[in-house]
Amino acid sequence: MRVLLIFVDGVGLGEPHPTHNPFCAADLPTLTALAGGQVWTQDATHQQSERALFIPTDATFNVAGRPQSGTGQAAIVTGRNVPRIIGGHYGPKPDEATRAIIREGNLFIDTVNAGKSAALLEAYPPAWHHVIRRGKRLPSSYQLAAGSAGLRFFGEDDLRAGRALSGDWTGAGWHSELGYEDTPIITPYEAGQKLVALAREYDFAFFSHWLTDVVGHRGTLPQAVDLLVKLDAVMCGVLDAWDDTQGVVILTSDHGNIEAINHKNHTRNAVPTVVIGAEKSRFERVRDLSDIAPVIRDLLLHDQ
Questions:
Q1: pLDDT tens sequence across 61-110
Q2: What share of the chain is helix, strand, coil (3-state, %, to 5)?
Q3: What Å distances lie between residue 12 and 95, 173, 182, 270, CA to CA?
């Protein structure tokens, strides 16, 4: 049994207004199909199709305030109600209390301790590795979870060799933002297929796409539409490559943001959770973000 968890930062189910919700302004045939023919808005309901389960998922944990990345991501990777435990939402990076919870146990640690393989599939540039090693920058919650399991963070050599993917899916950002000329650039569809190929090398694979949150905070509606169209093509590639009998693909987020491009802040909207694979019905019990990890643990560690 293999699990591929695709984490897309800052994606919620917002009001169905095409003037400020890019999900209503974009043509997203794959994402719509994954939701049983529904547009990804607050009107979308729990649906199960032949290949996918779509669950509007609570990211607030009934805790006041706007959900934040530090605690939301920690809940995804630990299966614990982190905002309730620490007394509020916190982010973007995990605070000391959240870091302690992550180090106590998470999906990466559990997988490795069970003698199975795990990986964080994003490639990070040299500058990121440098500041993390020097302690000049805190890792995100999912990065801390992977590091606490002793996993290696991939870099530019892994990107060139095809052992990891760029966080923007295609690798174009390594050229436009980082000045590289020799790293690969692929299409979003190819990125989806590559993601599946990489995930086949591990029992548990995690990939993070964080540009959705960046655009939600700073971007325009056309930029958000363009980004979601790329995500749609990525998921088309994933669907075409994934063997449903060998495991599950899970797509989820930590909080809303990009679905309300008009106000640039996180939202309290539900987030989408999509599960693809023959075992998708096992996730029917998911109601909030802390419900995802226990099902993954059952699939990875208890099913033989």
A1: 999 999 999 999 999 999 999 999 999 999 999 999 999 999 999 999 99
A2: 45, 15, 40
A3: 23, 24, 35, 6
Q: Distance between alpha carbon 29 and the CA centroid of its chain, in Å?
A: 20
Alpha carbons 109 and 143: distance in angstroms, whole number: 12
What b/e readout covers 34-45, taking b as 16+ CB neighbours within 10 angstroms? Answer: bbbebbbbbebe
N- to C-terminal Cα separation, the chain: 8
Q: How many residues does the chain have?
A: 304
Would you state the CATH architecture of domain 2-302? 3-Layer(aba) Sandwich (3.40)
Sequence ranges of the domains in the chain? 2-302
Element (H, E) at 204: strand 204-209
Tell me the per-residue pLDDT of 237-253, one tens digit each, with 9 for 90 and over: 999 999 999 999 999 99
